[in-house]
Amino acid sequence: MNTHKTRIAVFCSGSGSNFKALFHAIRNKHLPTEIVLCLSNRAQCGAMEFAQQNGIATVHITEKQFDSFDKFASAMIGRMKEHQVDIILLAGYMRKVPDAIVAAFPERMLNIHPALLPKFGGDGMYGIHVHTAVLEAGETETGATVHFVNEEYDKGAILLQRTVPILPDDTPETLAARVLECEHALYPDALEKLLTLQRS
Ligand code: GRF
User: Fold this and answer.
1) pLDDT, tens only, 115-153
2) From CA 142, how far away is CA 28, in angstroms rounded?
3) Is the Cβ atom of 76 under 6 angstroms away from ligand 1?
4) Would the pLDDT of 57 be above 60?
5) Ligand 1 neighbour 143 (Cβ under 6 A)
6) What is the pLDDT of residues 72-112, one digit of tens each?
7) Domain 1-105: which CATH class?
8) I need a labelling partner for 32 at 20 to 30 A (CA). Which of 70, 95, 139, 200 fits?
9) Are 194 and 87 in contact, with CB atoms under 8 Å apart?
10) CATH 3.40.50.170 in the chain, residues?
11) Per-residue confidence (pLDDT) for residue 184, from 0 to 100
12) d(CA 62, CA 80)
């Protein structure tokens, strides 16, 4: 029997609420996987704190620590090898992932985006800007998307998507909170789907 657990690195820059949701879902659903690394461009943030409290290895790495982008990318790849990472999950990672990493993880890197891609994605579409744009466009529903990562922001193939209603008195903030709640269930479901695809 193959007892190898898929080894996950989560890349984060912020509060890490998706990271926490993934961590708990993996346990509760007994998924054959484990989060072995939290990588961040910030030395301290909610995600890094949570990782430290839960015995997950952390890596703080930024471009600024290296004298070229290529060296930064090589160091990142080195870290993935060191921790024998099989899958990378981007969860609020606010930096560009070097193309060399994307190339090294074909069909093995996912991102979550707080809208129904391909709408409301790409440059400048992050955080509250997404929900402001959705409301300004007069949409009747929004949602969240988990997609594979390729070299273009928010353009990789969609793995799983779920809609979220927009209510008449929504502000960008109330909408953001409702979409985030949806993300917390969607990302674990997308991970489960990816694991099933990989094992079939
Ligand atoms: C989420 O809305 C996610 O869709 C986006 O960044 C946010 C991260 O939030 N990519 P958190 O750090 O997981 O709370």
Assistant:
1) 999 999 998 999 999 999 999 999 999 999 999 999 887
2) 28
3) no
4) yes
5) no
6) 999 999 999 999 999 999 999 999 899 999 999 999 999 99
7) alpha beta
8) 95
9) yes
10) 1-105, 111-200
11) 98
12) 15
Average model confidence (pLDDT) across the chain: 96
Q: In the predicted model, what is the mean pLDDT of residues 185-195?
A: 98
Q: Which CATH architecture has domain 111-200?
A: 3-Layer(aba) Sandwich (3.40)
Residue type present at position 42: R
Quick check: is 4 catalytic?
A: no
What are the tokens at 193? 């789907």
Nearest CA to ligand 1 atom 10: 92
What are 182's two structure tokens?
A: 């949806």
**In this model, does residue 9 exceed pLDDT 60?**
yes
Quick one: the chain helix, strand, coil %, rounded to 5?
40, 20, 40
Q: What is the mean pLDDT of residues 186-191?
A: 98
**36 alpha carbon – ligand 1 mean position (Å):** 20
Secondary structure of residue 109 in the 3-state scheme: strand
Q: How far is CA 175 from the centre of its chain?
A: 19
Structure tokens at 109: 């890197």
**What six digits make up the tokens of 93?**
């990672």
What is the structure's pLDDT at 1?
53
Name residue 123's amino acid.
D
pLDDT of residue 154: 84
Choose the residue to mutate in 10, 18, 35, 184 for probing ligand 1, maximizing ligand atoms within 8 Å of C-beta: 18
Residue 22's SS3 state is helix
